[in-house]
Amino acid sequence: MSISGWKWAAAWASAGAALAGFVVGAWLGPMQSVPRVQAVSSLADESFAACTAHVEGGVEGFFILDFETGDLSGGVINPATSKFVRSYRHNVLKDLGFKAGRVKKPKFLMLSGGMSYAGPAANTLGGSVLYVTDVSTGVTVAYGIPWNSQQAAAAGVQELVPLDIAKPRGGGAP
Predict the structure, then answer these.
(1) Which pLDDT band, with edges at 50, 70 and 90, does 148 fall under?
(2) pTM over 0.70
(3) Residue 79 exposure: Cα atoms within 13 Å on the Cβ side
(4) Do 49 and 26 lie in a common domain?
(5) With left for phi above 0 and alpha for psi between -120 and 50, is residue 170 left, alpha or beta?
């Protein structure tokens, strides 16, 4: 092949690569603008239920419910330091209608869901709700997660905020 033949082949190869790049870029472009998926998870055994919950941006919390005590606790990790910066605690037994001294091996379900708050709560609560359900009655309490990114590094334990109670069977004392 002559030198001019190589130039011609190189020009076609270059044009082909540019066209392929355009096609692939056009195909991937819309995919890159798709929102990223936030994964949350829940898990339970005989004694505990645990879940993760989106708080803000790339920040997520981890929460665990102790069936024996009714204590719901958790924390949020600071992405910059990889250390827990915020701690939470709340006892769910009273909210779910349990009577003191009458709790015998309660079982719960717990999961989180996304929430976009309006009004004053928009500046004080994170982007998720924790749902705790008493398995024997179906009574479910929704809890807000206090969060303010400007105060995220402040030390101390905060109370989770009971938002509402659903009683699918009309309630009842466990």
Answers:
(1) confident
(2) yes
(3) 7
(4) no
(5) left
